[in-house]
Structure formats: structure tokens, C-alpha cells
Amino acid sequence: MNIQPMGKTYLILTLVLTLFLNACNTKNQKANDNDPPAIESPYFGEKPPGLVPKLFAPDIVSPEGLFEGGTFSPDMKEYYFSRKNGKYEKRTFFVIRYENNRWGKESKTDIAYPKFSRDGTIIYRGNEYRERTDTGWSELKSMGPPFTDMHIMGISVSDKGTFFFDQFERPDTIGAISYSRLINGKYEPRQKMGKEINTGTWIAHPNIAPDESYLIWDVVREDGYGQADIYISFRTKEGSWLPAINMGDKINTELQESGAQVTDDGKYLFFSRGEWKAREDGSTYWVGRPYWVDAQVIENLRPKP
What we know:
The chain is mostly beta strands. It has helices at residues 6-31, 296-301; strands spanning 54-55, 67-72, 78-85, 88-99, 102-103, 107-108, 115-116, 122-125, 128-133, 136-137, 141-142, 155-157, 163-167, 176-180, 182-183, 186-187, 191-192, 201-208, 214-220, 229-234, 245-246, 256-262, 268-278, 284-294.
């Protein structure tokens, strides 16, 4: 009888076990090929922009190029976004969450265009809001006076609790930006801002700095580059607002720029750029894409002492 040495037997068993484990790993890897990749960067691994805006279209939320833009939660663990056109005949809203060092899979949501409180426990939508609960978000609740007797598209809140919001009284297309301060636990009647802000048409989408040192919004003005442009006004130490500044030809073009918002970490300015297109029946629809730029563009416009 031919008996193999013990060392050779162990070698053969080791090779068989190694091949078996590799086969299992390959199988598991193929099973997980559809899982989103691990991404450490909160901005979906995209290369940050400089002082010239660049398209923000990560593959994970824009696989078909129909991604319109979205909003990060303050902790950067949730991203709410929308898609429109193509197979999405109606605008469709999604949420994707960051867990275990990776972005998960998107799911549809009824939460549209959320504006977060600084602590991330409340989201505002027009003149309504939702509160974060143990299981998600509450149903929409009314903000009450002085926000309920008008149509609000954009709303923003400062660290002081002051709300800045646009208001349209249809069929008025001029619009205006107002504010309401929290005084002794109650919000004062809305106060319309001055001509430094409220000049032009389609005045909308205010974004207030956390410390209220500047306000960004979009508007159609005679000194603009085409359709709506993004403007900024800085506040003096005495509390008055300086004349509006067009944010320049790197931000604004002959197309429509709108919906600007600064990320909660203060690093980037996001906005939409696009245009209204006509259908055969004469109706129009919006086709826009999100762009982002280093928030240093704001400091470059801030008046020097």
C-alpha cells in the first residue's frame, strides 16, 4: 500500500480549502455587485468644485441624467432629491440615507423640497412643517400666523429663529421677500423687506446666513444676464441691508439660475440652472440641473471693512 507523507496530505487539504473559500467569496461578491459602493465622502465622493460652478450629478442619484437636485440633512446622513422628465412624467421625490460608511438604496418619499432647521429636527415646506419622530417624520402641520395667508415657495431660518420667506399673491408675478422675528416666544406679523431686496420680478427663494450677515435670493432684474439670476445682499453691523449684488457671470448666465442654498457646513453653494421649455399644447415645463461652487465666492463679494 502506498501511503503519502503527512506533509503532502496537509498541503492538498490546504489547497482544496483555499479554492473553496475563494469560490464562496467570488459568489458572495457577485451577489453584492448591486450594492452601492462604500463612499466615505458625504457628497457622494464627488470632487469638490472651485470658484467656477460645476455640475453636481453623482451616478448614484443621477443614473439616467434626470436628476434635478436635492437637499442634504444637517448631519449629512440623508439626501432628499427629485427626478423629472423622461420616464418620470411627473416629478418624483426620493430619499437616500448614509449608513455603515455607504449610501444605501433610494426610496420614494412624499417629502418634497425640505428646508431643515439647524438641528435637523424640523423640516419646512412652504407654510407647513414636519417634526422628526422615532419612526421618521410627522404629518404636515400648519405653521400658523403669520405664514398661513399666502403662498410660500422658499423659506429659510436663521440661528436667531427669524424666518425669511417669499410670498406671491396670484396672479402676481412680482413676488416679495418678507421676514418674521421670534419675539417673546411668538412670531411677529410679517415685515416686507426694502427695495434693496424687493426690486424686480419673480423675487423668490431666499437663503439667509445663519448669523443673518447676508441674504441670497433669485430675481429677474434689468441688470441681469438673462432670465432669473442669483443676487446677494450683505447686512451692516447696524442692521441695514446693502444694495443687491449680482453674483456674477460665473454663477449667472442667459439661462435661469435659482434656488441657491449654502450647505450646513458652510463649504458650498448649490443652485439650479436651466430653462423653461414649451410643449405642443403651449404649456411649459422646467428642465434644470444642479450646480455647486465653493462658498468662497460669497466672501469674495463681501464688502471690505
